[in-house]
Specification:
Molybdopterin-dependent oxidoreductase, 5-stranded antiparallel beta sheet, Sulfite Oxidase, Chain A, domain 2, transmembrane helix, alpha+beta, membrane
């Protein structure tokens, strides 16, 4: 059904330039005012092209409210993930964040699923909100063609904040999605770009919310959600013209109801969530993670869980991990060298702990091995301040990692020699790998060859 009113531009609030009451109306205008009357050819009449009667403050505010709740959660879990990397050891990227430095604390080891949840939420919620972001952009698209581009200082500042807001969120989505697909197509460091991009976006979001929150509240109150969701397509009418010009000046007939539009966006979000969560769940769920190639089940048996980097890719061969393999333990002035038999002769401890990859996938497995604190005690480091772990892998960012004191001393922190009752497979780090509760997967070093305990033992 078509609109039951035919408003002209002159009726519309918020476009004073076109008002017949304006002094000088009807005469050719000069300077800035003339610019307003002469949009560039590509923009001429562009506002009229967007005629959906669904567009308006209410729909925009519904999307806005969802994002207002969801995006801060994505941001906060992102910051937590940064802190989990151990920025105090220079392990988080970007290393130097200037005055954006976050309060530093030792990332806890309990609950052991902490990083699994913060990182899983960051990635899954980020993906799930993509359709809502697109819905929100669709709902405000005529605003992006606002003309004249600069009407007042306030309008210029607002448009600038919108540029950072829209540009910021699209940049975060693009870099985030490429990263979890392991597609490093960009010529810059992902972590640095994603980190600073997030701050740019959040700064613009704060400005945007400060400017718009009261309008969001008014718009949501203008149409009770329950009543609006009961309206079918045939009864769908445009909202009243609004000062922001979201409502089309010549709305066309509704091709879908507002509830239909919301169901479409919500349905797409659920679909994306459904294709994502499997990467954080064990069992047959994992097979549903169609969007996340690395989070899927690589095989069966005790070592049939995802592999980040294979032994072959890491350049670790059978010769390195055979009978000549030794674990070197170091601390100030002391050193010990153990072969696999010596490690297996030490007290073995079993713990059920997750590996949670920064790219979003995670898995819970049962690990058996020697406690890190027992290894520290072996070289007299009863209370080390940190431990530096090195892999047989020669190059690469993940060939080493530094652990905090609490991560060394936790009774479930292991140099694992077995998983689910079987020897580690070559791809999972044979003969020995680190596994620590709540530690990002990236620091669970595989093919360990040396651990150096640092910091004076306390008296
Ligand atoms: N030496 C070494 N250890 C490593 C890595 C690596 O590339 N090299 N990848 C890390 C990452 S990013 C993750 S998520 C876990 C994955 O462990 P898995 O491959 O056994 O599942 O191993 C970690 N340990
Ligand atoms: Mo990882």
């Amino acid at each position: 059904m078509s609109a039951d009113r035919t408003p002209s531009d002159g009726d519309r609030p918020g476009r004073p330039d076109a008002s017949p009451d304006r002094p000088g109306y009807g005469y050719p205008r000069r300077g800035w005012a003339a610019l307003a009357d002469h949009p560039p050819p590509g923009l001429r009449g562009v506002g009229e092209r967007w005629r959906s009667p669904l567009r308006g403050p209410w729909l925009t505010s519904v999307f806005g409210l969802v994002l207002l709740v969801g995006l801060p959660l994505v941001f906060l879990t992102g910051l937590l993930d940064y802190l989990a990397y151990g920025p105090q050891f220079g392990q988080a990227f970007p290393r130097d964040v200037g005055w954006l430095r976050l309060p530093q604390f030792d990332w806890p080891t309990r609950p052991s699923w902490l990083f699994r949840v913060t990182q899983g939420l960051h990635v899954a919620l980020g993906i799930t909100l993509v359709p809502v972001v697109l819905g929100k952009l669709w709902s405000v698209i005529p605003k992006l063609f606002d003309w004249p581009p600069a009407r007042s200082v306030a309008q210029v500042l607002e448009r600038l904040s919108l540029l950072l807001l829209v540009g910021g969120i699209l940049f975060e989505i693009a870099t985030g999605l490429l990263n979890i697909q392991y597609a490093y197509l960009f010529g810059f460091d992902f972590y640095t770009a994603h980190y600073f991009g997030a701050w740019v976006f959040v700064a613009a979001l704060v400005v945007h919310v400060a400017l718009r929150l009261s309008r969001l509240r008014t718009a949501l109150r203008s149409r009770p959600a329950r009543a609006e969701l009961a309206v079918p397509r045939a009864g769908t009418r445009p909202e009243r013209p609004d000062p922001d010009g979201l409502v089309a000046s010549h709305p066309g007939p509704a091709t879908v109801s507002r509830r239909g539009a919301l169901a479409l966006v919500g349905g797409l979000s659920l679909l994306l969530a459904g294709l994502t969560v499997g990467q954080s769940l064990d069992g047959s769920w994992r097979r549903s993670a169609l969007l996340l190639p690395r989070g899927r089940q690589p095989g069966t048996g005790p070592t049939g869980f995802p592999v980040n980097r294979t032994a072959a890719a890491a350049g670790v061969g059978a010769a390195d991990t055979g009978p000549d393999w030794r674990l070197t333990l170091r601390t100030e002035g002391r050193q010990a060298s153990l072969d696999l038999a010596a490690l297996l002769a030490m007290p073995q401890h079993t713990a059920r702990l997750p590996i949670a990859c920064v790219e979003g996938w995670s898995t819970l497995q049962t690990w058996t091995g020697v406690r890190l604190r027992d290894l520290a005690a072996l070289v007299g480091a009863d209370r080390p301040r940190s431990a530096h772990v090195r892999s047989l892998e020669k190059a690469g960012l993940f060939a080493q990692a530094t652990l905090q004191a609490n991560q060394v001393l936790d009774p479930d922190s292991l140099l694992a020699l077995a998983v689910n009752g079987a020897d580690l497979s070559p791809d999972h780090g044979y003969p020995a790998r680190v596994i620590v509760p709540a530690l990002p997967g990236v620091h669970c070093t595989k093919w360990v060859t040396e651990i150096e305990f640092r910091g004076r033992p306390h008296a």
